[in-house]
Q: What sequence folds into this?
């Protein structure tokens, strides 16, 4: 990979490395794709479709709705409701709100039932106003869509969600949550696959408060501190990394790919993991 | 030696059956084979075994290397899930599926990797917001 294109979008740093330079037209298409996604799905923007759901019972979530929410449907089932796109209200209650106040508003509040919502075409109907948060799947999903637009061999890295379209194996180190200069293991990701990682330590704003929230209780996950997953689908890889905070990695073995969860005592549990762990 | 080899097989089968197969067991988490451990003395050392099992792609081999101490405790276990033929990578992957190990950090500079996956590149907005709150709290 010889050329490197770096930019900030959807609140994270993107690094796209490619064998050949990416054309201006393609770059413009990537920018538009990201902007369109953000304008639909961001709960931090007042003009987004998701913000419309706050006040109205339905919103048009655009062309990605069926695919993105379809991944949530699968993860919702596998985690018995812990991973849900309706977790936004629970997060806001904990202080992760649009104003980024990081002030808890009181006791944890469970998310509304995802199964009570219905998707009709691209329009989501909710029985009551709800706050959608697609943080568990969205970044990986978008990284995959951006990779789809790039017509040369490339590796897309959206703040740690890595999509490998290089044509070769990509060797990836898994960062030690205790020390960003260390890794707890390495793994190879084949071209066409994506890998995602999630850790609670970097997005903590108070004792036990972080962004990975159990929709059933509205409280942050407690036993797992970091997770990684890989799958052919980038959105699914991202979602599996979140799901690993709530269910046994073996339970996630029903999906193509692998999952690794690291607990507070730094024991790693992995399923179908093809890499090396340092022990 | 012969007895120990047999134990190696049975210990492996037990581990496979419980799904607790570990690529890097340590003395802390490895458990002695309960039945055999009570009756037999063991010759400490490294043992290798190759097993076979049927798959839709034909009969496949799997290599196992384990280290036993004199109490019959497995102190190290390695499974070689290398496929010899056909589509066995996937099937053997399932055998080596459950890994549980205590991990330690290794300096990334010592590793030959293309990328690092972690959370150090967390949202800038998030980090700035948290920094502001900390400032406020300290003021």
A:
């Amino acid at each position: 990979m010889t050329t490197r294109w770096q930019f900030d979008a959807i609140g994270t740093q993107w690094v796209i490395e490619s064998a050949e330079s990416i054309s201006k037209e393609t770059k413009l298409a990537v920018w538009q794709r990201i902007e369109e996604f953000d304008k639909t799905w961001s709960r931090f923007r007042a003009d987004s479709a998701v913000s419309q759901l706050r006040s109205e019972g339905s919103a048009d979530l655009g062309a990605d709705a069926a695919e993105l929410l379809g991944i949530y449907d699968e993860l919702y089932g596998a985690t018995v409701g812990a991973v849900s796109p309706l977790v936004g209200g629970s997060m806001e209650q904990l202080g992760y709100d649009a104003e980024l106040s990081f002030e808890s508003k009181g006791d944890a509040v469970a998310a509304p039932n995802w199964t009570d919502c219905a998707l009709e075409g691209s329009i989501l109907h909710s029985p009551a106003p709800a706050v959608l948060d697609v943080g568990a799947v969205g970044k990986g999903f978008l990284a995959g869509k951006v990779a789809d637009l790039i017509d040369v061999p490339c590796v897309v890295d959206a703040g740690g969600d890595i999509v490998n379209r290089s044509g070769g194996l990509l060797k990836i180190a898994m960062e030690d949550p205790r020390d960003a200069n260390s890794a707890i293991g390495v793994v190879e990701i084949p071209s066409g696959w994506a890998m995602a990682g999630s850790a609670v330590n970097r997005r903590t704003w108070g004792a036990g408060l972080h962004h990975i929230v159990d929709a059933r209780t509205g409280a942050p996950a407690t036993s797992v501190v970091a997770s990684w997953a890989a799958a052919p689908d980038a959105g699914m890889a991202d979602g599996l990394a979140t799901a690993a905070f709530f269910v046994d990695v073996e339970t996630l073995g029903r999906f193509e790919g692998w999952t690794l969860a690291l607990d507070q005592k730094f024991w790693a549990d992995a399923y179908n993991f093809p890499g090396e762990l340092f022990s | 030696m012969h007895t120990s080899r047999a134990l190696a097989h049975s210990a492996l089968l037990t581990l496979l059956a419980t799904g607790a197969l570990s690529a890097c067991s340590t003395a802390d988490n490895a458990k002695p084979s309960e039945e055999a451990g009570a009756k037999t003395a063991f010759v400490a050392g490294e043992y290798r075994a190759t097993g076979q099992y049927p798959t839709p792609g034909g009969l496949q081999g799997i290599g196992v290397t384990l280290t036993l101490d004199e109490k019959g405790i497995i102190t190290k276990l390695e499974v070689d899930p290398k496929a010899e033929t056909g589509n066995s990578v996937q099937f053997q992957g399932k055998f080596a599926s459950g890994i549980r190990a205590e991990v330690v950090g290794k300096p990334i500079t010592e590793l030959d990797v293309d990328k690092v996956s972690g959370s150090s590149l967390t949202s800038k907005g998030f980090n700035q917001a948290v920094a502001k709150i900390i400032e406020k709290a300290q003021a």
Summary: Chain A has two domains: 3-125, 162-277. Chain A has a mean pLDDT of 91. Chain A is about 25% helix and 30% strand. Chain A touches chain B through 55 residues (CB under 8 Å).
